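Lab notes, practical 5.
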Amino acid sequence: MPRKTYHHGDLKNALIQAGIEILAEEGVSGLSLRKAARKAGVSHAAPYAHFADKQNLIAAIASDGHKKIFEQFEAIRARHADDPLRQFLIGAWAYMQFGLESPDHYKITFSGAIQDEHSHPEFLEYSQRNMQALRNIIERCRSAGVLSGEDVNSELQAVSIWGLLHGLVLLMIQGQLPSRLMQTTPAKDMLIAALQQFVRVPIHKKMLG
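Output from the prediction step:
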């Protein structure tokens, strides 16, 4: 079988994508560096230039997912520096879009398949940055009076909001919502209904970008 080609210097990303596809099809037990190399179209030895073992590849996939989310948060914060509510709403929509557009990558990012998170500093860095970014947005929204929950610790509120978003995304990805709702209600409308529980002003679709 002819090997796939990849751009010079992009081997790591090619292996990450191959790993995502294998995990989606076969689960953690089905993943190996040899299989990732075969799917990426490179030699069996090539992955070891970037990954010492399977766990390192899984950590890189999850880290890449968190990094993509963080970069979105940062871009949104820069575009709407003076509008914390739009940061909150558009950030939530960007998070949901990542899950809906890249469901396999999303599920692996939050799978808990990394056996020792502390051995993977990049994963810890970006996952913690994302939580801190959410906390910062929440605190600015509360200061602006547009978000309820001033009597709740901001970290606890961040976890609660993230849990709501994460649960909604997973239900949509896995087709676990009522079929009629899935067929008649756009994802944006579902997100608005979820976030309106926290936001003190009416949310309109245009506010999500």
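Observations recorded by the TA: The domain at 1-51 is CATH 1.10.10.60 (Arc Repressor Mutant, subunit A). The chain has nine helices and no strands.
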